[in-house]
Structures
1.
Amino acid sequence: MKKTVLVSGGAGFIGSHVTVELCQAGYDVVIADNMSNCDETNYKGVCAILGRQLPFEKVDFCDVAATKALFAKYHIDALIHFAAFKAVGESVEQPLMYYKNNLDSFLNVLEEARIHGANVLFSSSATVYGEPDQTPVTETSPRKPATSPYGNTKQICEDFLRDCVQAYGMHGIALRYFNPIGAHPSALIGELPRGIPNNLVPFITQTAIGKRECLNIFGDDYPTPDGTCLRDYIDITDLAKAHVCAVTRMLEGKMDEPYEIFNVGTGRPVSVLELVNSFERVNGIKLNYRIAPRRPGDVTAVWADPTLARKKLGWKAVRSVDETLASAWAWEKRLAEAAK
Ligand code: UD1
């Protein structure tokens, strides 16, 4: 019997890529999204890649009754929870909006997962490590006090899951993503930032296509080899495959502990300047950029030790930064074509 996975936030950037990989691995997927931060582009792209329509439910997980109805309608074996707000700066300006949305929605799905015996995969973030004392970070590296309400919601939701697993005999996994970038090789799904992008790669591609005049590189006086920050940029398709491994681990009863945490990164630090230079070289583009002041809240360097995921999930990142940056550019060009 095929197992069914509910993907909350499944019309978004990460959710859409995960849906494709789950379906291609033989799972049935129900996509649920309130469409508050995306349009139908990625949902349509997912259906085009798979060559069939997928069940889609417009649900806001802050709505208790709607969440209950969804779990009553489908037999959900596992839930992957992406439905959340994710802009760091906005969370500082509107903490209540972030706490209400990100915490309420997760509490509601946890309650239904408990009632219906569904396994839970939570999409966490390397932001929980803050400015680490040592790099690369392992899953046992200390979590640092969050520097934004967004980061705090990731820490709190990890704790919600840990405590529910312990109290109710549930099973759960938190995946801590480093910096997901790129787009599906088909260029049919990708990142669709609203307004001015906060993240580096969408800002690069929008500058290259002419939507933005100039990329600001936030600081070149960090204590790193070239003075710009170091991050672990992980290809979105590689990242999506880690979810398939994690869901399978839960559903096949292969977990060592009922609550597990895995870093999802490459283990490869890349500086902002290196990333910009790679983008230019791979795509044959000269990017307009300048050095700007540091962005408040940025950490100097963080990258993953991905050993645990390799050993326990049997997963590792395989795509090169070059391939990923080519996919990001192909996606931006496709969006420009579609807008004509
Ligand atoms: C941030 C969040 C992370 C979240 C991720 C995806 C924190 C501390 N970080 O990661 O939790 O999961 O976004 O939403 O909460 N940069 C520029 N110019 C730009 C944009 C970025 O130079 O226009 C630099 C930044 O200074 C940073 C690097 O690029 O060094 C990556 O930035 P970004 O893509 O925003 O990701 P993070 O801040 O690492």
Note: The longest helix spans residues 95-116.
2.
Amino acid sequence: MQLLIQECRVVDPASGLDQTADILIRDGRIAEIAPGLAAPSARVIRAPGLVAAPGLVDLHVHLREPGFEEKETVATGCAAAARGGVTTLVAMPNTRPATDCPEMVRAVMEKAAPTGVHVFPAGAVTVGQKGEALTDFAALHAAGAPAFTDDGVPIQNLALLRQALQTAKALDLPVLDHCEDRDMVKNYAVNEGAVSRQLGLPGRPAIAEELQVMRDAMLAEETGAHVHICHISTGRAVDIVRQAKARGVRITCETCPQYFTLTEEEVLRQGTMARVNPPLRTPADRQAILDGLADGTIDAIVTDHAPHCQWEKDRPLPDAPSGMVGLETSLALALTALYHTGLLSLARVVALMSASPAALLGLQAGRIAPGDRADLVLFDPEEAWTIDRDRFASKGRNTPFHGFSVRGRVKYTISEGNVIYQEQEE
Ligand code: DOR
């Protein structure tokens, strides 16, 4: 089985390649990358004007299965991933039951296998994500978990967190931490500031995130473990990571398109659709996220794809669940906000969404040199289009980006040499 992609712009940040060439794929692997390749029996995709990049790697996805299949299933979440150009993802453990034992890790991976999207379930840090007893990290890792997190339920017990980092350090695996002090944020809906005051609601203060990032940086320094900060959203949090990195601390971080595209004002326009944890912040925070992406403090762009049902989002702001879907819009939003504005090169945006996140968790993904698994995304970097949530493959329609004009569109997603998504004409 051979596939020949002709005349694409090959952008592979891991090898530094950025040139117009053909890509020959044989038996699920990249066989050759060079101009003018011939392969008479191959299926041909003509791709002039398209970029061929490593399949995107999303370290932060809520697939919801088991337990919340009305929001998303592994199958629909992976279909959304494919539609967004994502071929490898890390699934968050806040399912029901939580992914806190090897059987659960294996069950999610088995469900994902037929989809062609490579799914790595993160193991919970604590049993049932209850913040009381550590899970068996070694057993979870042996089953396939590349990292540990209690995402969605920030860890408050510092003795337990320190013990988790010591255990993770011994296995040389990262802990991914959702940083918000739970007593400060409770179940509040929005950032604490102008918008929360205008709405007359209590807010989630930036300091609730920053204190936890500071705490994590100090524990990473003390234990030598790798701490990865999830969905960073405030300027001061980015500064803390920047300074810790400068001291040689093993700390990395990710952000999401919503934090470099939107601000808390969006809640006034869109209500619950713009409710997410951590919350959308101020224009100064948004600018600081852009600065952190530009200077390399922020290591990866992820989605925090968090599908919810429409009836849940129809509740009043204080009662609706937090979260927004993102798999089918992340590449376009990143290209629009970061590349088309001139802030980052195309190769840098691709790196932040493939090679860099793969390297953070040691995943075999995010590169397309000869011999590598043939996981690719082909996209038109220029095409202007309008985001339409009614076309999503995800069950979740909860996006604040419906109707947004963006530039950059996924055309094909290829996993192990198989086309797992091809754009249909509208
Ligand atoms: O907004 C969020 N939604 N943030 C989280 O950390 C969890 C997520 C969810 O699971 O819905």
Note: Residues 9 and 281 are 36 Å apart (CA to CA).
